[in-house]
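Request: Could I get any protein with tokenized structure?
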Amino acid sequence: MFDRLDDILIHYEEIMQALNEPGVTDDQNRFRRLMKEQSDLAPIVEAYKAYKQAKQDIEDSLSLLEEENDEELRELAKEELADARRRVGELEQELKILLLPKDPNDDKNIILEIRAGAGGDEAALFASELYRMYANYAERQHWKVEIVSLNENGIGGFKEVVAMVTGKGAYSKLKYESGVHRVQRVPETESGGRIHTSTATVAVMPEAEEVDVQIDMNDCRIDVMRASGNGGQCVNTTDSAVRLTHMPTGIVIYSQTEKSQLQNKEKAFRLLRSKLYDLEMEKKMNAEAAERRSQIGTGDRSEKIRTYNFPQGRVTEHRIKLTLYKIDSIMDGDIQELIDSLIAADQAAKLAKMNADGE
């Protein structure tokens, strides 16, 4: 590990030298690549320098204890030694986490799909609440949320909603949300006060670039039609809605949120690229089944991952056995604690696997 860290330190210094060269911004592609590399390596370099300093502090304190007779100074050296040893342990763990293989999709925007599951209208209402939860969280992160397609049930619920979330690190934070979300509560329509259980399925896919997925236009059928539903003025006056069918996979995309047919077509293709990319990722994950089992699930959409119990005011994350008693703030978008706990559990699982492989 430390040989690798020394190599990273040398490479980082080379990048910094290159960034300080005159005329470095003349080649914008090279400049952007260098800036990204510098930004990716900076946290590792910072932690490694702090680690080396803590190791030096241990040596200095031990030397002082060997040479010094003054009891007061010896006590001070002992305190500094204990503090430096604690920091070395913490920084070693931090460096192991920083050196874990990075998910290449982490910096990508996402396509978020939420579908009502079992429970009829109550499931559709829950799906709309989940969408608002994610939209509020995205707003706190200063991300942009655009609805691509929406199928409402007429009483404020969403049978299905597809949205694009654009912002730095969107996939890294929301990738653990894929799966079945379950709600337990007394519906407003329930006169007997009985608790009902409903579900909604969430899918989080990284947005695929054109370089990630090549689409053969011969495999696609494009139909245009009048947009329907709540779209304000002129929603039904032009053939602006687009239905895109990818024949080899049977994937159908419907996009109607833009007034222009061209914009809807563009959105539909962006969504299709991401779905095809997601299928490829799923195939790869299935091929690496053991690797996948060692991590917190980010792909299996049939897995029940979380329960929102309104009568008890609790949210339970089943994968890591975490229960939080703050359902109102969570439904309002305060999901950072859940996300941080899932990231920490995933890192711990990967570290444990890495240590087992190394033995």
User: Anything to note?
Assistant: Confidence is low (pLDDT under 50) at residues 230-237, 291-295.
